[in-house]
Amino acid sequence: MTLLIISPDYASHLLPLATLGTAWRDRGERVVVATGPSTAAIVESFGFERVDLPLARGSNPGIIRAEDQPEGEDDSLRGFFDATRLGMTETLAYQAGERLTDLMWQPVETARRVLAVVESVRPDAVVVDHLAFSARLALAAGRVPYADVVLGHPTALPVAGEVYGFPPVWPSAFEPGGAQLTDLRELCDRVSASFTREWNAALAVLDPAASPSASAFAEHGDLLLLNYPAELADPARELPRHEFLGSAVRTEPLDPEVEEWLASSDEPFVYVSFGSFLSVRSDVVARVVSALQSLGLRAAIAQGSAALADLGPLPASWLVREFLPQVRLLGAAAAAVTHGGNNSVTEAMTAGVPVVVLPFSTDQFAGAAALQRTGFGVALAPNTATVPELAAALSQALDLPSETAARLDALGESLRSVPGRLRALAAVDAALASPS
């Protein structure tokens, strides 16, 4: 059997997708990854074959910096970073406006390259990132069955009454104004309609006999794989044929420096990471640093693109590097501070670690609301949270009520006992055995 994984050229997307692919690899089957050149080393580290397939103008091998991006994408990233400093509605509005070039890069040309890869590889099963819209357009046009992996909050696939880019729920720390929300909803509706027209125009070129889509953002694969714990999801949302994977926690290579640091003290520590994009917000990271110091806590900080000088004096006992093995450190941490990205949240839940979440954009708001609702996290607004408020949130996360701590422990045990890669394998096998 041959599994084809189609991923954008972004480490944060490829790592969980490749982790799912290890279930097929470990069963002795062929795994081919179609992605761009920046993440070639990641594909090689998993022992998979790689086919070159750029799906967007940008890329991210691990830490993203605007100056490393091609012309056009650099300005887009700077605009996004600037918008995060203004507020949540401004950020979501900026992202909505960027969406046509962001999600459907050269759709017809890219789709044809995707179909050429499928023809060359001849896979028995195809797994594709939900946000690889041009790739999913190709598979729809080519009538190729595929499993669609949502690497985010389940609301990344809008259902009845929802529109892509407009969070259906907010954490209580955010109080968007009525006029701002109305304007954002109208903008997201316009972008959705425009995106659907572009999808249908490309689909008509690729497959003139195909029926046009009523809503391109609501299109999905034959099987939906949600890289998210069912325990955090809203049971009232009606989804198509799907499987909650829980998480796609990867095995990381041993890092001697990290192991030495972990062995150097028995004191509890907090792991801090704002991911490959949002670590650029060094002002927020610096406030988190101050809050940690005010509580006398030990910390491991993945600084990403944040300038070290912006964080102020740091204790010698802390572990601070551009990049850290997140899975390993979450497995030993007492709590975590995160922007609410899917990898950070699902990996923290797998480790049974409570979080302080500071969401900036997209589905991070819905994810933060779910963590707040279940009691597994404390959500604050990153632009306005003060050092005392951050310190109070950290104290709350570190001292969960016993009933909440027991539920979080049970969730972590469940996610570890049946990892996402095995859930994905079983779901795809079942779909192949019963395609209807």
From TrEMBL:
The keyword Transferase applies. Pfam families: UDPGT (PF00201). The keyword Transferase applies. Keywords: Glycosyltransferase, Transferase. It comes from the Bacteria. PROSITE patterns: UDPGT. This is MGT family glycosyltransferase.
